[in-house]
Specification:
The complex is a heterotrimer of chains A (350), B (423) and C (287). By secondary structure, chain A is mostly helical. In chain A, 71% of the residues lie in helices and 2% in strands. In chain A, a hairpin with a 3-residue loop joins strand 1 and strand 2. In chain A, helix 2 crosses helix 11 and helix 4 runs antiparallel to helix 5. Chain A starts with 6 loop residues before the first helix and ends in a 5-residue tail after the last helix. Chain B has 12 helices and 14 strands. In chain B, the strands form 3 sheets. A 5-stranded parallel beta sheet of chain B has the order 2-1-3-4-5, sandwiched between helices. In chain B, strands 10, 11, 12, 13 and 14 form a 5-stranded antiparallel beta sheet that branches. In chain B, a hairpin with a 6-residue loop joins strand 12 and strand 13. Chain B starts with 5 loop residues before the first helix and ends in a 13-residue tail after the last strand. Classes of the chains: A mainly alpha (350), B alpha/beta (423), C mainly alpha (287).
Chain lengths: 350, 423, 287
């Protein structure tokens, strides 16, 4: 079955995170802590989309929606409740608010029968609405100016210990730890029985239903979890730029998340994480090149990947191997006679 | 149908993992080696006198919705820096400046500011052209103890988080709505009409302007007959127009910005409202955007600090240099003339007063400094670090303005209306 | 509600129907979820920008836009949609999602992020229903109505239309009865695109033309199709009036944002209570 996470991948992930942890040892350029931390946070966001798209075959067109709600939760709560309490409450809000919204949207969409379009549509429409609401609710969100003076989180137990993450280095380590936790959680989720059932639903909803699984329930569950994860990522993002403004709900960010997942390989978790990290880091060193050209290029890359390389860049290796073995036919993008669900989740050509 | 076997997956998983990890290690190594500054902390503390130039970091939107203002600032700086250097520079040192694109996005502005402070190590910061981006830069400037002149008109931003004190390193060289409206509203009520309808773009600045102006209207004996806000990007104002018709105002005060504003005025013409009501407002009719709106906004009254036919020797020199470089038809707005050149003149005067180009000394010398700028005399108000300067009543005629009245030097009152935020 | 309001609602309804009709034809025939539909509208509007900045009359743009955008639609169908047709719908949704971003950014790069204005083909206003209303808006809406009627006639009276509707009902059956469904698909996409582009061109003189103008149209069209019924052309008319006219009507008491939320809420309600749409017969149509 879906035994994706052999020890090789786990080792690779561990190596990755250790390397990330070592960055402050190698360099003291604060600017890069910020860039890499941003990349890791986006990586977590990418993993959340992967849970929905890669593993469950659900298209959430607005991962930025949950991300933005998480960022605003931190901005709004962190401003009003200080210290450790503030961090815990904000964490709860950053996870719970998007989770609730995600659950409701998933429920509404999938109750109406298998209409991915409903889910995709509502998420898109909602993100537009949320952007407008963020602009209008000035008292809460700072309107177009956004929320500034984003606080640094603190954790601990009052009276026992207290850690404030208010330096670039300490915050960086927090992000690395958060990414590690997120990866472990996602891995556990998709490797076990839960993940198997999700895969079954993705491959044939009908079959899963006849086997007695409520597809609605599982879809709502994964959407809720993915939303919570994205929300927490959003909360981690806010202190990195120090501002939360309505553009965080924009379609531009959502498209980038799709690109990260598509490039990294939908359904691999590690792929989207690394792709998000590399692309974010790479983009930041392209000084002076306009954001517009960048979005144009990744849009084209995305289309090409959807058309020709559903497995993402990581599947290039597999294709080359097949080529060497003479199985050229497997490389053509012509779809097989019976649509295989593999295409939809990006596992590459069978 | 063939499901990939677990063997396939294992192999591709391993390859995948290896590729990916290797790439990451390479990237992080490159990043670590490639970072230009070693031990680059945010800013360099108390500025030293070293170096033969004064380096200024300019944040402006080169891309994004406010790009025309960014262009104005860039052009203004080009001309202004040349003129200042011709006159000996700041404190005898040549002015050197670096531009970073803030993309009209607060997050990008914050990053760009960080870059200017940590990697370029600028002595002063200038810019941006929107409230949101300005507010994003302020904490960076404060942390680095680098004086920051913001150059966009808007609500005052120089107060500290208690809203009663003044920030040490933030100076406001843009007109505040209080400065503009306090003198204008009485004239408006007298000459245009007493029933006023407000329509603005739905974000912080127009709300602020409308709230303030509404209060002034009521205090001066007028009536507010309605207020409406259109989300940014609204291009079809037909529903708003029907509401305006219902309210039957004498004057429509417009704070809808950019091309939305152009669409609104155009549609007000088309729906036949121009025959019945007077139009006014700000910053819809500002100098930077006048060419786009002049066609449909003839005879509209507005208020501004600067216009390019202001009659004084400083402006003659500045406008001549600007037109020489960018063409006779190039519009010169307040951002180029006052934001860019005005700021440099103030820095020059402060350095002279302090006798040194040391950042800290200049920052302390700035409050109270007075210079002649293209708009006229301007002074850094020691009460609040907001520049006091002339306010003019202008009327759109042809593709430029007529100056109708000089409303005089208007200081900003204390810290009223200040956007305070934590550093 | 005054005369201006009534006319505003009417105009909004008409254009909502026209754009949604284009989407409906594409979805009905090809089961393709065209996330770039709004950008086709945008391309029609920018055609007007190009034509008028070249000094030509806006009417030239109005005639040219559906041809240009229709041709573009055909090219997109062949290059991007047809290869994905055999796969599940998700791929075409994603591909067109990518296309929408590419088109937005390309236009932004070429024309800049500020919105552009297009001169009005007919200046002046008429006195109608006790109010002054711009002449051109009425003329444009009338033209849109004519086009909607023409397309309706095409779909219900011509042999092409019969084939299109047969394909909507069931592609396999249509194929078995001798319809070249590939060709029909191609033409349907072109027609849908042309409808969107035409609406964009007609509306350009009275709304700002900007690269992001399409998103709103895409969302609104989909809400219409969901509310009216995913396989129902007649439903598109009803849904268009409900969503487009409704949103415009709601801006009278409420703000634009609240109107948008209400309309979205209505669509969600329909999704829950009557998933096949308000105006269609029968049960839920599967993809």
């Amino acid at each position: 079955m879906m035994r994706l996470f052999r020890s090789q991948t786990r080792i690779a992930a561990a190596v990755l995170l250790v390397a990330a942890a070592l960055v402050p040892v190698v360099s003291s350029d604060v600017y890069w802590y910020n860039v890499i931390a941003t990349g890791l946070v986006f990586g977590v966001l990418a993993m959340s989309l992967d849970l929905q798209w890669g593993y469950s075959g659900i298209i959430n067109l607005a991962p930025a929606m949950s991300f933005g709600l998480g960022a605003y939760s931190w901005g709004i709560v962190g401003d009003r409740i200080e210290g450790i309490g503030g961090t815990y409450v904000a964490l709860l809000a950053a996870a719970a608010v998007p989770a609730l919204l995600g659950a409701v949207v998933a429920f509404v969409s999938f109750k109406a029968g298998t209409r991915e379009i409903y889910f995709a549509l509502i998420t898109l429409a909602l993100t537009l609405v949320l952007e407008q609401v963020a602009l209008a609710a000035t008292g809460l969100t700072g309107g177009s100016n956004g929320l500034l003076g984003i606080a640094w989180p603190e954790i601990g137990i009052p009276g026992a210990f207290e850690i404030v993450f208010d330096t670039p280095e300490s915050y960086y380590y927090l992000v690395v730890v958060l990414t590690a936790i997120a990866f472990v959680v996602c891995t556990a989720l998709v490797s076990g029985r839960f993940g198997s059932i999700l895969a079954a639903i993705r491959e044939s909803e009908h079959r899963a239903e006849t086997l007695g699984y409520s597809t609605l329930r599982y879809r709502v569950a994964i959407s809720t979890i993915a939303a919570a994860l994205a929300g927490v990522a959003g909360m981690a993002y806010a202190p990195l730029t120090g501002i939360v403004d309505p553009s965080v709900f924009g379609v531009a960010l959502s498209v980038q998340v799709f690109v990260w997942v598509a490039v990294g390989g939908a359904g691999t978790l590690l792929g989207p994480l690394v792709a998000a990290l590399l692309i974010t880091a790479g983009q930041s060193s392209l000084t002076g090149s306009s954001a517009t050209a960048y979005l144009l290029v990744i849009g084209v890359v995305f289309i090409l990947i959807v058309l020709f390389l559903p497995g993402g860049l990581a599947s290039v290796g597999e294709r080359l191997r097949r080529l060497r073995r003479g199985r050229l036919t497997a490389l053509t993008p012509a779809p097989p006679a019976a649509p295989t669900p593999q295409e939809a989740q990006g596992e590459g050509q069978p | 149908m063939h499901l990939s076997t677990s063997t396939d997956r294992r192999r591709s998983g391993r390859l995948r993992a290896a590729v990916v990890t290797g790439a990451f290690m390479a990237a992080s190594l490159l990043a670590a080696c490639g970072s230009s500054d070693d031990g680059g902390s945010t800013g360099g503390g108390g500025g030293d006198d070293g170096g033969g130039t004064v380096k200024i970091g300019v944040l402006a939107p080169i891309t994004g919705e406010l790009a025309p203002y960014g262009e104005a600032l860039e052009r203004g700086m080009t001309v202004a820096a040349d003129l200042i250097n011709e006159d000996g520079g700041i404190g005898g040192k040549k002015v050197e400046w670096v531009l970073e694109d803030d993309q009209t996005d607060p997050k990008a502005a914050s990053t760009a500011a960080r870059k200017l402070l940590t990697q370029e190590r600028v002595d002063y910061l200038m810019g941006t052209t929107s409230s949101a981006t300005t507010l994003a830069v302020i904490p960076q400037a404060e942390r680095a103890k680098v004086p920051f002149f913001y150059v966009v008109e808007g609500e005052s931003k120089t107060c500290d988080s208690s809203a009663t004190g003044t920030r040490e390193y933030v100076f406001g060289n843009g007109e505040t709505p209080e400065q503009k409206m306090t003198e204008y509203v009485p004239w408006m009520l007298e000459n245009l009409g007493k029933r006023v309808y407000f329509i603005g773009s739905d974000y912080v600045f127009p709300h602020f302007v409308n709230d303030l102006t509404s209060k002034l209207v009521e205090e001066n004996g007028g009536t507010v007959v309605g207020t409406a806000y259109a989300p940014l990007g609204t291009s079809d104002f037909s529903s708003y127009i029907s509401e305006i018709e219902r309210a039957k105002p004498d004057v429509i005060f417009i704070s809808v910005v950019g091309t939305d504003g152009i669409a609104l005025v155009k549609q007000l013409n088309q729906f036949g409202l121009r025959d019945k009501v007077e139009l006014t407002g700000m910053p819809t009719f500002a100098g930077e955007v006048l060419p786009g709106i002049a066609d449909v906004a003839q005879d509209v009254y507005t208020v501004d600090r600067y216009w390019d036919k202001a009659d004084n020797p400083v402006n003659e020199r500045f406008a001549a240099a600007y037109h020489a470089k960018y063409g006779e038809d190039a519009p010169i707005g307040t951002i180029a003339a006052q934001g860019a050149y005005g700021t440099l003149l103030l820095l020059q005067a402060a350095a002279e007063k302090a006798g040194t180009t040391d950042r800290e000394a200049v920052a302390k010398a700035l409050p109270g400094v007075s210079v002649e700028s293209p708009a006229g005399e301007i002074t850094v108000n020691p009460d609040n670090n907001v520049v006091t300067g002339p306010i003019r009543l202008l009327q759109v005629k042809g593709d430029n303005y007529d100056e109708v009245q000089d409303l005089g030097q208007v200081p900003h009152p204390g810290h009223s209306g200040c956007s305070s935020q934590d550093a | 509600m005054n005369g201006t309001d009534v006319l505003n609602i009417a105009v909004a309804s008409v254009f909502t129907v026209e754009v949604a009709l284009g989407l409906m034809i594409i979805f009905g025939v090809m089961r393709v979820i065209n996330m770039a539909h709004g950008e086709l509208f945008m391309l029609g509007a920018y055609t007007m920008v190009v034509v008028t900045s070249a000094g030509l009359s806006p009417w030239v743009g109005i005639v040219l836009a559906p041809l240009v955008v229709g041709a573009f639609g055909m090219a997109v169908e062949r290059a991007m949609i047809r290869p994905l047709y055999q796969r599940r719908d998700l791929s075409s949704l994603l591909a067109t999602f990518g296309l929408s971003i590419v088109l937005q950014q390309a236009v932004r790069l070429i024309f800049g992020p500020q919105s552009k204005t297009v001169p009005t083909p007919i200046e002046g206003s008429v006195s109608l229903l006790g109010t002054t209303y711009p002449t051109y808006r009425l003329v444009a809406a009338t033209m849109a109505i004519l086009v909607i009627v023409a397309v309706g006639l095409l779909l219900y009276r011509s042999s092409f239309g019969i084939r299109v509707r047969a394909t909507i009902e069931g592609a396999e059956v249509a194929e078995a009865l001798g319809t070249n469904t590939t060709r029909i698909a191609s033409l349907a996409f072109a027609l849908g695109a042309a409808l969107a582009g035409f609406a964009g061109a007609l509306m350009a003189p009275f709304i700002g033309v900007v690269s992001t103008m399409g998103l709103e149209q895409t969302v609104r069209s989909f809400l219409v199709v969901i509310t009216g019924g995913m396989g129902s052309i007649a439903g598109t008319f009803g849904g268009g009036v409900l969503i487009g006219g409704g949103e415009s009507a709601l801006t009278i008491p409420f703000s634009g944002t609240v109107a948008q939320i209400c309309v979205l809420g209505l669509a969600i309600l329909v999704m829950l209570v009557r998933p096949q749409g308000l105006f269609s017969r029968g049960g839920v149509r599967t993809a």
